[in-house]
Amino acid sequence: MQLDFAVEAIEAVEITGPKAIEGAALMSPYVWKHGARCCILLRVVPPPGATPTSTGAIWYGESDDGLHFHLTDAPVIAPGRDLDVGGCEDPTLVQLEDRALVYYTGVDAGGATGQLLVCEGPDVEHLVKTEIALASTQSQGNTKEASIDCTLTDGWRLFYEYARNEASLVGLAIGPGPTGPWTEKPQPFAPRDKHWDSWHLSTGPLLTSHKDAPVMFYNGATHDARWRIGWVAFDAEYRTVVDRCVEPLIAPPPRPDRAAADIAFAASLISSPKSPQSILYYSCGDAWLERAHIRRFRH
């Protein structure tokens, strides 16, 4: 039986908040449901010329409809120590019974390299930075963009992006708990020659409503970094790829402003085990946000 997905509608996501976010670029929208409300962790990148300079901070906001979010008065994760003094990016929430974990990318003082960090607290508005979650190595630089799941029988899986030989790639590590310790495993899937994802890959949100066939909505690009969103399906323990899209599911819309980056980049997903429909949140042009209503099919 073959798997497929279709985009049924695309909507613009609106962000409001304090004056500090005016003119900022909006990226990496991690959205989840909390009761009847939608919550968001969002990377906000200061406009050119702002001081102090950084690659961004992570803000928290809420929404009644999942389309119009209002941010709180200050970021919940901000640059402030050696590991993330250059910026805080790419939030991923792991909600546990007694606490919240947020994985994020900490960028160094020069803004050139980063690595995967984690903070925790009773909720996302009261987080404390704790440790390096997965350090960069000589063979895997710029670890970032966490996607995490607990499998049915064999523990936790941490997917992450890393850099090697001028390419972004997807790595996989396993661990006994949501903070590891992590043991690196072979690359879960690779770029495909002569395809839209022929050079760069990056992690995206996981659809786990069918635990026997989890799906990642990943990000892929050509050598010149024209990013698109696709999907890849695994077996229940993420050991084998069982299906993968041929064409991208989502591409950025045409823009009259050619200076805008040619990028669509998936960040989070809201789904229900009882529904074939999901809502995918993503950024476009490294500047604004959209969401797509997606339907799952089996042929």
Keywords:
single chain; 299 residues; mainly beta; four-stranded antiparallel sheet; Tachylectin-2, Chain A; eight-stranded mixed sheet
What this model shows, in words?
The protein has no helices and 23 strands. The strands form five sheets. An eight-stranded mixed beta sheet has the order 2-3-4-5-1-23-22-21, with no helix packed on it. Strands 6-7-8-9 form a four-stranded antiparallel beta sheet, with no helix packed on it. Strand 12 and strand 13 form a beta hairpin. It has strands spanning 3-16, 25-34, 37-45, 57-63, 68-71, 87-95, 100-107, 114-121, 128-134, 141-150, 156-164, 167-175, 183-185, 200-202, 206-207, 215-216, 219-221, 227-229, 232-234, 241-244, 264-271, 277-284, 288-298. The N and C termini lie close together (6 Å). The chain has one domain (3-298): Tachylectin-2, Chain A (5 Propeller), CATH 2.115.10. By secondary structure, the chain is an all-beta fold. The mean pLDDT is 92. The chain is globular and about 50 Å long.
Task: Give me the CATH fold name.
Answer: Tachylectin-2, Chain A
- In terms of per-residue confidence, which ranges show pLDDT below 50 for 5 or more consecutive residues? none
Major sheet description = 8 strands, mixed
Total strand count, please?
23
Structural class call reads mainly beta
Radius of gyration: 18 Å
Summed up, the helix count is: 0
